[in-house]
Amino acid sequence: MENRPVQSWNWIYILETKNFLLTIFLSIIAFNLFSFETRKPEKTLSEVFPDAKIEVKNIILSEEKKARAEKLSGLKIETRLVSIYIARKDNNVVGYAIIDTHTVRTMPETVLYVITPEGKIDIIEVLAFREPLEYLPDERWLDIFKGKSLEKDKIRVRRDIPNVTGATLTSRAIADNARKVLAIWEVVADKIIKDKGKK
């Protein structure tokens, strides 16, 4: 009779342990289903520009350039500090990239925008996505941005960019911020090109 309470507590301990392990297991599954981890931009750029040297240039926008970029993009720019990745091969610039983190619904996504030396979108890649993956557009949709520029294109969902059914907020966020990074590139392009000549 004295052993029964001990056996009862053993069973409770086993059940609680199983529930705890099950909770951890389900949490891991949920994380993998609803988001993915951040990819390093350097790794992505090394894949886009093999054998190129990648450097980062930090630029502080003047109030005038910040206002101009906001007018060009139609979006508010939260910070004057901009980090631009520059890919060089054989001492020639083969591309630029700007990383932008913004909120989609309630969670953030981080997007890498690769820009050609002429100021056009080359590649867009999502580096981190914290919303459910069902809200993430596929690569075919991202490919539509290739060659887009502020000079000739609107870069707006339901105009020259098709909406993604079930991922309207994500598609709008990616398109809107494509305009923003192109506008930022445009207002700092002169400085980048001048600095390029010093290399």
Describe this structure in words.
With 199 residues, the protein is an alpha+beta fold. The protein folds into two domains: 34 residues; 156 residues, no CATH class. The chain contains five helices and five strands; from the N terminus they run ααβαββββαα. It has a five-stranded antiparallel beta sheet, with helices on both faces. A hairpin with a 4-residue loop joins strand 3 and strand 4. Helix 3 crosses helix 5. About 10% of the residues have low confidence.
Please state the CA-atom Rg, rounded to the nearest Å: 23 Å
Flag low-confidence runs.
11-15, 19-33
Largest sheet: 5 strands, antiparallel
Structural class: alpha+beta
Mean pLDDT: 83
- Tell the overall outline: globular
Total E-strand runs: 5
Note the topology.
Elements: H1 4-34, H2 41-48, E1 53-60, H3 63-73, E2 81-89, E3 92-103, E4 108-115, E5 121-129, H4 139-142, H5 168-196
Antiparallel strand pairs: 1-2, 2-3, 3-4, 4-5
